[in-house]
Design brief:
mainly alpha; two-stranded antiparallel ribbon; 74% helix; globular
Length: 298
């Protein structure tokens, strides 16, 4: 269930990212901003995620439950700001809401949970599930926005195609928050810390029993072996400790990892450019002065 909750978090976050794509340009125009501001609205969430991945990764060293709860609460508030920006007639509130959603992205926690808490024989399936949940969220976001083509008011709150994505995602995060609070189980975090001392104790006892039956010359060799083992053990423990700075973390990356990260960066950049520009090509607002496609393509 805890793994399912992490995959659900990934799915909801990707839906939250891309649900605004079809209406971002119209929302900008309704608030008096140029249609091209839709690129800022869509991309601000991804830019803020760069910073959130740092402190959420550090937080996941101590807990998985707390950062996921905190992320869900702040995503709920961010979507409320996104929805309320229409009635407040403020493009600043709109962008702040999107930035708040990006600053509370828990995707780093989701990846960390899979790498640390899922059994090795199931890790490949869990990783495939993470990618599938992300892709499904990217597809369902714009599709869901296409279904929210209605308009009504409750008191002074406006519900239309621009604000409904924010309201719907706020409700979705509220439901997820309740589900998370009831079902998530915090895994044990001191496994690696306890693992090495237990092994070293067993090895020490066995070697101590053997040394008693060996000659003095052989015992010296065993002591040297023990010293080498302890040094390698300490190095292994240090390699599992979190990096103390960005530069030290970068030094831990191998050339292969850097190459794969660069490929992911290029793919994400191309995808974001295409998605951010798509609302401008199909903008049908009478106030929009952007270049439209010929009628036969509409």
């Amino acid at each position: 269930m805890s793994l399912l909750l992490n995959l659900a978090n990934t799915f909801l976050y990707m839906v939250n990212t891309y649900i605004v794509v079809p209406t971002a340009d119209d929302y900008s125009l309704s608030l008096g901003a140029p249609a091209t501001v839709c690129g800022v609205i869509i991309g601000s969430m991804a830019v803020a995620q760069v910073f959130s991945s740092v402190y959420f990764s550090a937080w996941s060293n101590k807990s998985y439950f707390k950062p996921l709860i905190f992320s869900s609460i702040m995503l709920l508030l961010g979507n409320l700001l996104y929805a309320l920006a229409y009635d407040l007639s403020s493009i600043a509130v709109l962008i702040i809401g999107r930035l708040l959603c990006g600053l509370d992205s828990a995707r780093a926690v989701n990846r960390r949970y899979i790498s640390d808490c899922v059994l090795l024989k199931l890790r490949m399936k869990a990783s495939a599930g993470f990618v599938s949940a992300s892709a499904l969220g990217m597809a369902c976001g714009p599709a869901l926005a296409g279904l929210l083509q209605t308009k009504f008011k409750i008191y002074s709150l406006t519900f239309n195609k621009n604000t409904l994505p924010g309201w719907v995602m706020a409700v979705a995060w509220l439901i997820y928050l309740i589900w998370m609070w009831i079902s998530f189980k915090e895994p044990v975090h001191d496994f690696e810390e306890n693992h090495f001392p237990q092994d070293s104790g067993v090895v020490g006892q066995s070697e101590h029993g053997i040394v008693q039956s060996l000659l003095i010359s052989e015992s010296k060799d065993d002591e040297e072996d023990e010293r080498d083992y302890d040094e390698s053990e300490e190095a292994s423990v240090k390699s599992h400790e979190p990096a103390s700075s960005i530069s030290s973390a970068y030094k831990l990356l191998t050339p292969s990892v850097k190459c794969h990260n660069n490929i992911l960066l290029q793919l994400a950049q191309q995808l974001s450019c295409n998605i951010s520009s798509s609302p401008l090509s199909y903008c049908s607002s009478s106030k929009c002065h952007c270049r439209k496609l010929p009628d036969q393509y509409l």
